[in-house]
Write a structure and sequence with these properties.
Elements: H1 6-28, H2 35-54, H3 57-60, H4 70-87, E1 89-91, E2 94-96, H5 98-115, H6 119-140, E3 148-157, H7 163-173, E4 177-185, E5 188-191, H8 194-203, E6 215-223, H9 227-235, E7 240-251
Antiparallel strand pairs: 1-2, 3-6, 3-7, 4-5, 4-6
Helix pairs in contact: 1-2, 1-5, 1-6, 2-4, 2-5, 4-5, 5-6
Length: about 250
Amino acid sequence: MPGQGWYQFGELTLAFVLSGLVGLEREIRQKSAGLRTYSLVGVAAALFMLVSKYGFTDVLANERVVLDPSRVAAQIVSGIGFIGGGVIFMRRDVVRGLTTAASLWVTAAVGMACGAGLLALAVAATIGHFVIMLGIPLLLRYLPRERRTVATLRVSYDDGKGILRAILVDCSRLRFAIDHVRIGHNGQYEEVPEAIRDQADDEGTDLSPRAPAGVTLSMQVKGKRPISHLISSLSDIPGVTAVGTVGHDELD
């Protein structure tokens, strides 16, 4: 039966190598989908393409049967959406996994190109993936940013664990200026003077009120990065239970 020669095995092998390279990059970055997932997606997409091209030759021997070989390939595009949807999730108002889902989409396209015999396009698409994933973040560091983000954050966290210091350190690390800090419990806030806040930051002192329940911190932050970066970073601090914005604006 045609379609089972060394050339087709070579196409599957190339799909495995290219998708494996993409998966290795994501594995090193410790993303939710890694080497195994990307390799399987690339090889499966290539195999579906080969089945679409050669799997119905015996049926087509009957002149009364007419098939559209592109229909199998079209279903790959729909099917990969389910896998991509599985790696996209929202955590505390921050959407994560979009880049991983998009790279899975590219990997499926690379596998389809290998299965279709478009080997040069498959290699070019893989190179383009690495240019986007590795080169563009470096370029963005040098682009001028004309706007700054101003937002009021409300952070809830467990009391008595030194979490306030970790929050202030994260804001400083991401270059967000802090103003109008209020710390409260059960909806009651207490204004914290800037001098006391700076001294507590230097000494590692937790300014949160001593209470058996959680603490709510309200603060205004200003910075050049998207506020979603700060929310994501604060959400990863152990002991932080909720992070949200009260107000959000961008100033020239």
